């Protein structure tokens, strides 16, 4: 009871006024990273569509979808997405001194883990909704892939 009132007053005066601006500043790199994850998924599926339209090869399509499933674990392709979040390192340095925010690396790592998890969920959902082995009419495959991609991105 004796600590509650001074703590609330301290929060209301020294923290509350800055929360929205801090959140807005931090969300820039986070949103950018997640947007890049979405764009990467979109690009990879578009590449699968284009490749299939050129070759109409169902075996190659299956290989490409299998490669897509490994996308969340492809550090070379995911790295640009992760780098966007590294900007938090600089932004959080200022917060570290003002608000005593520690474990900046943990915040960045967890955000990158969430990005990888999002990609895992996207490719898993894509695989569940589209199975090349169930596609009887190869003329409709590209259209089906596009529809599944849009559904996943939604």
Automatic annotation (TrEMBL):
Species classification: Eukaryota, Metazoa, Chordata, Craniata, Vertebrata
Niban 1/2/3 domain: residues covered: 9-154
UniProt protein name: NIBAN protein
Family matches, as Pfam families: Niban2
Family: Belongs to the Niban family.
